[in-house]
Structure formats: structure tokens, C-alpha cells
């Protein structure tokens, strides 16, 4: 039986996100992104009320389940730009492969350098792919899905903020380069940013994100042996 508190947390999550989105539309600042404001407010409320994550997630996990269809929705505009994809398939494939190898190797090296537990290390290994793919790949690697989801969100937010700064610093003009960077480095969060900047850039980011997720799922049994 669902508790009243679980329903309250679900409603609070939706209300806080909607409010944060309205705030961001009025004041479009990176640090006011709904993906930053809403989780921070929820964390504060959980700490103040003494509620556990298990209690919060007992009903709110359905919001996470909606990430799968939302990710697929990113793929819909790809058909309209199939000509761009045919022209640059080799560059995109090589970029995704290089990005995934770099993400996994850097995670393993840094985790062992800082002496992190094995569970953390393997959950971190999927931080550079979108949440639905990470939730499926993390257990295959010996990680924990909940931890992986947290690391994915943190990576996405960090990638979005750093990506914006890098684009300004190096004046990157190619939609292909910008989209691939956001899709590989900040997955869904970066893809939303890319779609807002330019439709073609958003399509490239969507494609990069999806290819990276599929590649991680296909190679996770081999990566488990590597770990």
C-alpha cells in the first residue's frame, strides 16, 4: 500500500521542477537550471524532514522510468537529418568510441588512484551515458543502478556547464563538433541544451548520446571482465 508521504514527495518533485522551470525561463542562467535547483531543494527538504531516500523513491521512481521514452523521443528528429548523418557517420562513430574509452579508462584510473570502493568505481564507469542505458549497464558491470543514476546526473550537469564555457573559450562554430561534444560529454542534459541552441546540433547530440548508450550496453559483458 502506498503511503501518503510517498505521494507527497512525488507531488513535491513535480511542483518543484515546474517552478524551477518557470524561474529558468524568466532568468536563463546555467546555475538556475531546473536540473540543479529542483534536486537541491529536494535534498534540503529530505534532510530537514529526516525522510529517507527509500521513502522518497517508493513512488517517485516512476519519474525515472519515464526517462526511457524521453530518451527515445530525442531520436525522432534524427530521421529529418539523415543526410547529415550519412555524410559524417565515420567522424561520429570514431568520436563516440574515443569518448567512451576515455570516460571508462579515466574513471577506473582515478577511482583506483583515490582508493574508491569497487562498487563506486563500477557505478561511475557508466557516468557518461544517458540514465536509461546506465541503469541497465551498471548491474552488468557489478555497479549499483541508483548510484549510477546519481553519477550520470552530476556528469550531465557538469558537462553542460563546462561545455558552454569551452564553446565560448574556443569559439567552436561547427554544429557537428558542438553536438557531438554535448551528446558524448553531457548526454541528455547536454542534448537538451544543444537542441535549444540549434536543431542540427541537437540531432547530432541525440545521435551521439544514443550510439554511446547502445555501445556501452553491447560491450558491458566484456568490460565486466576487464574490471
From TrEMBL:
InterPro entries: CidB/LrgB. GO terms for molecular function: hydrolase activity. Signal peptide: none annotated. The keyword Disulfide bond does not apply. The chain crosses the membrane at residues 6-24, 31-53, 59-79, 91-114, 147-168, 203-224. The keyword Membrane applies. It is a multi-pass membrane protein. GO terms for cellular component: membrane. Keywords: Hydrolase, Membrane, Transmembrane, Transmembrane helix. Coiled coil: none annotated. Its main location: membrane. It is found in: Membrane. PANTHER family: INNER MEMBRANE PROTEIN, PUTATIVE SEROTONIN TRANSPORTER. This is LrgB family protein.
Amino acid at each position: 500500500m502506498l503511503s501518503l508521504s510517498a505521494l507527497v514527495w512525488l507531488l513535491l518533485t513535480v511542483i518543484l521542477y515546474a517552478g524551477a522551470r518557470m524561474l529558468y525561463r524568466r532568468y536563463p542562467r546555467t546555475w538556475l537550471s531546473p536540473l540543479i535547483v529542483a534536486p537541491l531543494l529536494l535534498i534540503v527538504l529530505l534532510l530537514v524532514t529526516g525522510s529517507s531516500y527509500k521513502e522518497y523513491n517508493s513512488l517517485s521512481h516512476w519519474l525515472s522510468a519515464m526517462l526511457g521514452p524521453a530518451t527515445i523521443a530525442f531520436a525522432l528528429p534524427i530521421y529529418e537529418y539523415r543526410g547529415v548523418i550519412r555524410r559524417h557517420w565515420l567522424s561520429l562513430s570514431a568520436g563516440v568510441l574515443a569518448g567512451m574509452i576515455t570516460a571508462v579508462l579515466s574513471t577506473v584510473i582515478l577511482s583506483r588512484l583515490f582508493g574508491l570502493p569497487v562498487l563506486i568505481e563500477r557505478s561511475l564507469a557508466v557516468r557518461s551515458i544517458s540514465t536509461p542505458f546506465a541503469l541497465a549497464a551498471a548491474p552488468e558491470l557489478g555497479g549499483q543502478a541508483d548510484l549510477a543514476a546519481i553519477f550520470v546526473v552530476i556528469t550531465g550537469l557538469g558537462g553542460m556547464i563546462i561545455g558552454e564555457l569551452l564553446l565560448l573559450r574556443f569559439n567552436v562554430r561547427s554544429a557537428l563538433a558542438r553536438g557531438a561534444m554535448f551528446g558524448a560529454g553531457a548526454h541528455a542534459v547536454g542534448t537538451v541544451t544543444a537542441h535549444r541552441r540549434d536543431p542540427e546540433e541537437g540531432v547530432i547530440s541525440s545521435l551521439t548520446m544514443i550510439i554511446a548508450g547502445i555501445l556501452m550496453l553491447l560491450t558491458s559483458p566484456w568490460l565486466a571482465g576487464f574490471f
